[in-house]
Design brief:
Strands 5, 7, 8, 10, 13, 14, 15 and 17 form an 8-stranded antiparallel β-sheet that branches. The protein has a 5-stranded antiparallel β-sheet with strand order 6-9-16-11-12, with no helix packed on it. It has one domain: Exo-inulinase, domain 1 (Jelly Rolls, Sandwich). The protein has 281 residues and is mainly beta. The relative contact order is 0.22. A hairpin with a 2-residue loop joins strand 14 and strand 15. The two termini are 30 Å apart. Helices cover 6% and strands 32% of the residues.
Length: 281
């Protein structure tokens, strides 16, 4: 497929409804047939927004790089934006998403990302949610014009399992906390209730991904494989339900198989802290 790269910084208004699946970015390029799907692959444009020099961030003796210092958004910006949206603030040494309760992402909300791409890595973080709230951690994010981050990036689910309806949606609990959203449930499900801090970790190495929750491995899968394509085909990101997401997620991480790490806020309040990354070789 021929991808157009947009080299100017733009601010996209992101809507997280499934209606977005039909809003592929049109260009003057003629789409090339997707041989796997047997249909014309959707057009899209990738953005090339500012990134940061990772060497300016503190690294400990074990190679962990602190990407949030508890005081500033140094290194962070909005997805498809050059600034951090206003609904994201810092409170008690944590990043806070101040949910409006609507679940709709406007110009003051949306996702945020750390503006450096990673390939093989471990990402550790702590999270908590208010009652009935949900959020996500994304990785291998590609910034796609006029489309949400979830179209290009796997989703580590953050959820109040007791009070959010998504916990009972999907299949076999695959929308509960630490799950690969709508594809693979986290087992055992050991999340703490709303208002309490949980520990998360995502380990990515040469396509093998593991999710951890409260120091236990709960999910493992393999990107760019027949297993990965099968899971996509059985999810809300299938080629018939959301062809652009299917196209991007099939080639998760793009040609270089790397991307940004980011955070999503939705309808309610959510907090993240103690975020650090280790590069794996």
């Amino acid at each position: 497929m021929r991808k157009s790269i947009l080299f100017t910084a733009t601010t996209a208004i992101l809507l997280y409804s499934m209606a977005a699946c039909t809003r592929g970015k049109k260009s003057n390029d003629v789409p090339v047939e997707n041989t796997q799907a047997g249909i014309a692959a959707p057009d899209y444009k990738l953005l090339n927004l500012p990134t940061i020099d990772l060497t300016s961030f503190a690294k400990d003796v074990d190679g962990w790089i602190t990407i949030f210092d508890g005081e500033s958004f140094d290194g962070w910006r909005g997805y498809n934006k050059t600034v951090v949206p206003a609904l994201w603030t810092i409170e008690d040494d944590a990043v806070k998403f101040n949910g409006t309760g609507s679940g709709v992402q406007d110009s003051e909300g949306g996702d945020i990302l750390f503006a450096h791409t990673f390939k093989n890595f471990e990402f550790e973080f702590e999270w908590k949610v208010a009652k009935g709230s949900s959020a996500s951690v994304f990785f291998y994010i590609q910034e796609v014009e006029d489309q949400p981050a979830c179209f290009s990036a796997p989703k580590y689910q953050i959820l109040d399992n007791e009070n959010h309806p998504d916990a009972k949606s999907g299949k076999n609990g695959n929308r509960m906390s630490a799950s690969l959203y709508d594809m693979m449930p986290a087992k055992p499900q050991n999340a703490k209730p709303s208002g309490e801090w949980n520990k998360g970790k995502i380990h990515c190495f040469k396509g093998t991904v593991a999710h951890y929750q409260n120091d236990e491995p709960v999910v493992e899968y393999h990107l760019w494989t027949s297993q990965w394509r099968e899971m996509l085909s059985n999810s809300k990101f299938s080629k018939d339900k959301c062809p652009l997401a299917y196209e991007l997620l099939t080639n998760c991480g793009g040609n270089n198989q790397e991307g940004f790490i980011g955070l999503q806020g939705q309808g309610g309040n959510v907090w993240f802290r103690n975020m650090k990354v280790k590069t794996l070789y």
